[in-house]
Amino acid sequence: MRSNPDLSTAFTPRLNLLPTRRQQRRAHRLRFLWLSIILLLLWVPSLVLTHRFILAQQQRLQLASQTSAQQMVQLRAISLIDLAAALSDQDLLWLEQWLQRRTAGAQALQQLALLTPSSVALTHFKQEGTNVTLSGHARSAMDLQQFEKALARTPRWERIARLTASASLYKQFPVQTFSLRAGANEAVEP
After folding, report:
1. Of 2, 35, 114, 150, which has the most beta carbons under 10 Å away?
2. What is the pTM of this model?
């Protein structure tokens, strides 16, 4: 026996949905394109406005810091003027002497660096008032004596006394380890 074909499928009309789907895709693409254009048109100005706002804030901050620095300089100048007006002649004399003593110490160190020969290495420096204690190594006893004589010849250093001196080894080399005390003469003009 032959089977009967299903009559419901035999008489079903076939519809072509392809043109409708193409139209829907075109409409979707068109909507996406317009939405992209609108978003781009909104995004670019907001980006430009944000950039301008950041630049304006940076300029304001720079101007504020410049103004603040100028005001600080003016305040310091005013406080120095007030301080100078408030100081008496005796105070000004004391301040000048203090500044001279302060620069005298720096000049004494600079002169000490110039007087120290290459055969003498200073390892310790201690200052107590106007007295200075120097410790270090000399290549030989003769080099140590020449260093002491060089210090004695200068008017800035006085009362030079050798505290200790002994032969020793430094990094397997024979050296003269020493300790000197000298007084810095503050009366010497730079």
Report:
1. 150
2. 0.44
